[in-house]
Design brief:
Shape of chain A: globular
Helix content of chain A: 25-40%
Order of helices and strands of chain A: HEEEHEEHEHHHEHEHEEHH
Structural class of chain B: mainly alpha
CATH topology of the largest domain in chain A: Rossmann fold
Number of helices of chain A: 10
Number of helices of chain B: 22
Number of strands of chain B: 0
Number of domains of chain A: 2
Low-confidence stretches of chain A: none
Oligomer: heterodimer
CATH class of the largest domain in chain A: Alpha Beta
Radius of gyration of chain B: 26 Å
Strand content of chain A: 15-25%
Largest sheet of chain A: 6 strands, mixed
Number of strands of chain A: 10
Number of domains of chain B: 2
Chain lengths: 256, 527
């Protein structure tokens, strides 16, 4: 146990990203231990997606380094990315393919042996409750179904590290509960998950570690119990991030 | 309300231009071009009014006006793309009636650069009638009617080509059919004109064409002042009825098309393949090359944005058959021209992925695997098509002895093109229509510079293809069949080497530039 903990599943050191004169991420350090279920929370525009994009080799950082199981993502992207299952937010899928074709395609991209692909795809389709829509092209899917097929694509090559950006957005509660079970069993078997979310309840329930990010910086990070320090994660988040209003909203919006 | 929509449209234009200096440069060139054309037209009209009689003014107004209408209908589809900055879809959430939306869209059409230029040119035609005061007065409402017809017809075509409502597959199908018809209209018109040229002199021919067009919805409005000038008020009234009816019918058709767009759901489940129907993904070998090959080939066979580029394959032979006849040199050589155009098809291939390129990047496949997969996808469609075209055109044209040379030149070009595109598409991305959008839609963010890069890419293809082309020409010139076979060998060897080198260089480039390409694609404006 102590041996594996020496090499974090994901380690970020001093990641910086500027867009023009706006600093989106201003020096993020993060250590995600192997086998952990790590939550990343923060307000809109905090830099969560930008950070995860840099950690997975999709967005070149201006400074800093990201390692996946000790492999530098930007020095050896081929080896690092083979270990990552990535559900990116705000990008399209190849949505002219059917759900089944898309998962198969992703498996082929990761060089999963041909004889294993069909079985894996079938498992994922039933896991995501996409059986009826397997032959429908992804462009015709609802938002939640699209999210689920993207998640299936992230899982198909059995990665060691799952990076999930807003995985439960618009997913129905039944599917969400099913997926949650699968993710738990994945971490208990040694896999690592880092997930960004807006839902404090979900993070408090599912994750064992959490980092709170605002304005491109890590405000607090550690185990969930350490970070929330006796309060609920929601309250702790609000007191760290600030910006809570107590007003009833503008007068003209009130209906009586 | 109309004023609000107009302000919105100019605000959007202003914001876009302010953020993108190169687009501003292109925009200024557009305006200069419009002004120069307008100056020529107005000068020509005034000259005609001063020095010519009614027998010139009449065909000039009718033929010119008809050409204007055709330009409004075909131009956006063929050349500039549909302006969708403000369209019915975007106005749908606001509490506007269908009629108000149509008024607003007509007004935006009138006040764009083409609208303003058209209005000025159309008003200038009143000068033609200054010697007949009654006709000049009557010309004013007729010109307004004609300009409105242009705008409404263009809006109707744009609603039709972006789909008659209904499901996605239907929209894609209709879009492609409209495109084929419109592209084929070009050669047919050229051919008809070529036939007329051979029989009569210019003035007589114009008279004849004007005589016909004046009774059609296309030219009726432009014929009215001439009728008034020659004092035949009955004819004028009849034509006025035609012109008004045209506008009303177009308006009603447009209203129906819009109702179809807004009441039918934007996306509806299409034909569902039975599960397990993996298509090419079930057949290609696993791994980055096989996966990319399968995806690329699927796109070439099904994606309208790729299919649109394949439409030129039948277009050129048809065009050359009309202009030069099937015995002509150009008809038999059309495979070479098609190869030259087809080799540019993938010069910004990554752009067509859109942000889905992120999922290519996330898998961490090596650049050369991606390049090779895309090349194989394009070649699986392109090379058989070129070979088929070369065989058919030389056989039909009775020039089979030149087949090796033509094959050599065209294969040399297209293989060189695959090599060059493997490198260029690792360096350049341009804004293109999103998957599933109409391939005719104009795309914001196209800049002057990326437009010019096409010529650089084409130049590179021509340089690499030059040896085979040279031997093929030598074969034509000397009539010695040996040169044709040399051209074939050189084309395949040099082209193949260029393709292999392109995969290698392009792969190394993509390994370096992949994340930057994705960032640039994400930064493109979305409409």
């Amino acid at each position: 146990m102590t041996d594996t903990q020496l090499v974090p599943a994901l380690q970020l050191a001093g990641l910086v990203k500027r867009f023009g004169d706006k600093t989106a991420v201003g020096g993020v350090d993060l250590v995600v231990p192997p086998g952990s279920f790590y939550g990343l929370v923060g307000p809109n525009g905090a830099g969560k997606t930008t950070t995860l994009s840099m950690a997975t080799g999709l967005l070149r950082p201006d400074a800093g380094t990201a390692w996946v199981h000790g492999v530098d993502v930007w020095a050896d992207p081929v080896r690092a990315k083979a270990m990552i299952g990535n559900l990116a937010d705000g990008v399209r899928l190849f949505d002219r393919l059917t759900g089944e074709q898309l998962i198969t395609y992703t498996a082929m991209m990761f060089s999963v042996p041909r004889e294993q692909i069909a079985a894996r795809v079938a498992d994922l389709i039933s896991l995501m409750d996409l059986g009826d829509a397997a032959g429908t092209i992804v462009a015709d899917y609802s938002a939640g179904m699209t999210k689920k097929v993207a998640l299936a694509c992230a899982l198909v090559h059995a990665p060691r590290l799952l990076v999930l950006d807003e995985p439960f957005e618009s997913v129905d509660p039944v599917s969400a509960a099913n997926i949650e079970d699968v993710l738990r069993s994945y971490t208990s078997s040694g896999g690592t998950i880092i997930i960004s979310s807006h839902s404090m309840d979900l993070v408090q329930r599912m994750c064992d570690h959490v980092a709170i990010i605002a304005a491109g910086r890590v405000l607090a990070a550690g185990t969930v119990d350490d970070v929330r320090a006796g309060e609920s994660l929601q309250d702790r988040f609000l007191s760290l991030v600030g910006g809570r209003h107590t007003s009833e909203g503008p007068q003209w919006l009130r209906q009586s | 309300m109309v004023a609000t929509v107009l302000r919105l449209r100019y605000r959007i234009l202003g914001n876009t231009l302010a953020r993108r200096p190169w687009q501003l440069v292109g925009f200024c060139f557009g305006i200069l071009w419009a002004i120069s054309i307008l100056g020529t037209v107005v000068a020509g009209l005034i000259a005609a009014a001063m020095f010519q009689g009614l027998d010139v003014a009449r065909p000039l107004a009718i033929v010119g006006g008809s050409a204007l209408l055709l330009g409004w209908v075909l131009g956006p589809v063929l050349i500039t793309g549909m302006d969708t900055t403000v369209d019915a879809d975007k106005l749908a959430p606001f509490p506007l009636s269908a009629k108000q939306i149509m008024q607003a869209l007509t007004a935006t059409g009138l006040t764009g650069i083409p609208g303003i230029a058209t209005s000025i040119a159309a008003l200038a035609t009143i000068a033609l009638w200054v010697r007949w005061p009654f006709a000049a007065i009557v010309a004013v409402p007729c010109v307004i009617l004609a300009v409105l017809t242009c705008v409404v017809a263009s809006r109707l075509v744009s609603s039709l080509s972006t789909g008659l409502g209904g499901n996605r597959r239907g929209r894609e199908l209709i879009g492609t059919v409209v495109l084929v018809l419109l592209i084929m209209a070009g050669p047919i018109i050229t051919g008809t004109l070529a036939l007329l040229t051979s029989t009569r002199d210019l003035g007589e021919r114009m008279q004849q064409i004007a005589g016909v067009l004046g009774w059609t919805p296309i030219g009726a409005a432009w014929a009215i002042p001439a009728d008034v000038a020659s004092g035949v008020w009955g004819l004028a009234a009849a034509r006025f009825a035609i012109a008004v009816a045209t506008l009303i019918v177009l308006w009603m058709l447009w209203a129906r098309a819009l109702a179809g767009l807004t009441t039918a759901p934007r996306q509806r489940a299409a034909k569902v393949a039975r599960s397990g129907a993996l298509g090419l993904f079930g057949r290609m070998p696993t791994g980055g090359v096989g996966a990319t090959w399968a995806r690329s080939l699927t796109a070439w066979l099904r994606d309208p944005r790729y299919l649109r580029q394949l439409l030129i394959v039948p277009l050129f032979p048809v065009l050359f058959a009309f202009t030069g006849g099937v015995q002509g040199f150009m008809f038999s050589a059309s495979a070479v021209i098609v190869a030259l155009v087809l080799c540019l098809a993938g010069y910004t291939d990554v752009s067509y992925d859109g942000t889905a390129f992120a999922s290519v990047l996330a898998t961490g496949i090596r650049g050369r695997e991606d390049r090779l997969g895309r090349l194989l996808g394009a070649a699986t469609v392109g090379i058989p098509l070129i070979v088929l075209l070369a065989v058919v055109t030389t056989a039909v044209g009775g020039q089979v002895e030149h087949l090796p040379g033509i094959l050599g030149a065209s294969l040399g070009l297209v293989l060189a093109g695959y090599g060059v595109c493997a490198v260029s598409s690792a360096l350049i991305v341009t804004p293109v229509a999103a998957p599933g959008d109409s391939p005719f839609k104009s795309v914001p963010g196209q800049t002057f510079v990326t437009g010019l890069l096409v010529f650089v890419v084409m130049g590179a293809c021509l340089v690499i293809g030059a040896p085979a082309l040279g031997f093929a020409i030598a074969g034509f010139a000397t009539g010695n069949a040996v040169w044709g076979w040399v051209a074939l060998a050189v084309g395949i060897v040099v082209g193949g080497a260029a393709a292999a080198l392109g995969v290698w260089i392009g792969g190394r480039t993509l390994d370096r530039t992949g994340p930057d390409l994705l960032q640039r694609i994400k930064a493109f404006p979305t409409t």
